[in-house]
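Below is one protein, fold included:
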Amino acid sequence: MRKSILLVLLLLVSAGIVAAQVTITVHPANIPVTFTGSVQYSAVVSGSTNPVRWAVDGVTGGNSAKGTISSSGLYHPPAQVGIHTVSASVSGSTVKGTGKVYVSNYAGVFTYQNDNQRTGQNTSEIALTPTTVKEKTFGKLFTYPIDGYVRTQPLYMANVLVPNLGYHNIVFVTTEHDSVFAFDADGLQTTPIWQVNFTNPADGITTIPDTAFTSFCNYCDNQTEFGITSTPVIDPTTNTIYVEARTQQVANGVTTYFHKLHALDVTTGAEKFGGPIEIQASAPGSGNGSVGGVITFDPFWQMVRTALLFSNGTVYMGSASLGDAGPYHGWVLGYSAATGTLQQTGAFITTPNGSRGGVWQDGAGISADSAGNLFLSTGNGTFDADTGGSDYGMSVIELTPNTSGALELAGYFTPYDQGKLNDYDWDLSSAGWTLLPGQTGPYPHLAIGGGKEGTLYVVNRDSLGGYNASNNDQIPQSITGAIRGSVPGQPVCGIWNEPAYWNGYVYIFGLKDVLKAFQITNGVLNPTPVTEGTLQMRAPTPVISSNGNLTPIVWVLQWEFSTLRAYNYNNLKTEIYASDQDSARDGTDGRTAKTSPIVANGRVYVGTETNLDVYGLLP
C-alpha cells in the first residue's frame, strides 16, 4: 500500500501536480562588511530549477538604506551602520534562505589599547556579541604566515585605497625579524598587500641575535632575535604607520647597534618623511655612564619596549633596558611628524644624575590626554626629587611639551615606600597607566595603574601629588594588595599590563592572579572587585568590545597557553568562548608571546610566533 502511495506521489510530482519540497541555503550565513566592501552571496537550491531572487530585509534587490544586491547575489552595503537580512527565494515557493550581514565602519585600531588614554575599548562593534560569540558560531577563519615572533599588538585600518588594488581593510603586524606585514583584514587575498624588512644581510645588517644578551637576559623567553618589540602607531590623517626597529651591522669585524624610526606609507610600505632616522639622544648629567657631564642614549643597552604614541603631531616612545643590565636610564623621546622631517623635538631622561629609572611598562604605551600631556611610570632607580634633585626612579611622571616640543616635567607621584620598592625590585613601571574619562566628584581627571607589588594607585592628573614620606594620602586612592598573584612569598605577582576601562568598570589581570573588575562611581574606585574570574594567568592585557553601552565582551589572550578567551563583562566567571574548546579548528597557529588581541569590524586578530590568526563569525 505504501509503495503504491509513493508511486502516485512521484507521478504527481513529475506531472507538476504536487510540488517537490524546496530548500534554500544561503552562504555566507554571517559576515561583516565595511562601507567600501562587498559580499558575494551564493544559494544552494534543491526542489526547484527556478532562478533565485535576492532581497535585503524583504525588499527585492534592496535599496540605498539597506544595501543593494544584484541578481547574481553581489551585495553592496549602505553608507550607514546596521544589521540586515539577505534572503534568497524562488518563484512557486514561500521558502527562503537567509544570511545576516553586519555593516560596520569602525575606522581602525591605530594605537596600543585603541586610544591614547589606553582604555582598551572598542565601542563600535556590532557583529560580535555574547549571543554570537559561541563555539558553534565563532571561531578561527583563516591565518597568514609571518617570519618571526610577534610581541607587538596588531593594528587595523579600514577602507584603505591601495594603488592598483582598490579598497581594502588592512591589518598590520610586526615581528622580531624586523618585518612589517600589511594583510587584507578580511582574507580576500592570501599574500600580503605589502611587506617590508629592515635587514640587509648582504651589508651585514641583521636583527640582534639572542647571543648578544645571553649573559644577562632573563627576559629573552626563548626568543632568538630582537627587532621590532614596541607596538607601532598609525596617523590616519597622513596614512602613515610609525615603526621603531633595532638592528645590528657587522663590518670589518666591528658590531654596531642601531635603533631607527621608520615612517611608512600604509598603502605601499614605502618610507616617508626622509625616514628612517637613527634614534639618538643626549642630556646633561653626571649619572651612570656619563662622559664629561653628558649622558648619551646607548643603542645596545637601551630597549624601546613601550608602544609608540602619536599625539598632537608628535611620535613618542619610552625606553629602558633589556634584562636590567648595563648603564641605562629611562628616556622619553619625541619626533615631529607634523613637519614631515621626523626631527627630534624632545628628549627627557628620568635619572640624569643617577641610574636606571627605566620606562618599561611591559609593552604598554605612554598615555596622553587631549591636551597632549604625557603620563608614564618609571622603574627601580635613583629618586631624589623630594630633596631638590632631578632623578625620578619608581615614580609616575607627567610631561608636557612646550611650544618648541621640548618635554618639561609637569608633575610626579612617588609612593611613600619607594625605597622598599626599589630595594626589592618591586617595579612601578611593570604596567602602563590608563586615563579614565571625566568623572564626577572632586577629581574629574584620574589615572589608574600600579606595579609588581600589587598596590593599585588612583592619581589626580591635575595634580599628581609629589612625594609624602609617611603615606600616599596626597593621591585620591591607594589600595594595597588589590592585585595579588598566587605564588607564595612572591609579592611581585602584581600588575604587569595595562588596566582596561569600560562604562564605569576597570578591568585588571594581575600576574598569576585572576581577572578582576573594579567599579568606579563619582570618581571613587570600590576597593573590592565587583566580579572576578577563576582562571589564573600570566597577566594578559584585557580588551573590551561593545556596541556603545550594549553587548560588551571582555577578551584576553592567555598567551602562555596560546588561548583566546572571551568573558561576560559583569560576571567574569562566565566564559563565553575559548579557542581550546575546539582546538583542532580554533587553536592558534604557533605559540603566542605576551601580546594582546584586537577587535575590529567583526574580527579578532592574534599574533603568534609564526602566524597572524583571524577569528570571527563562522560563515
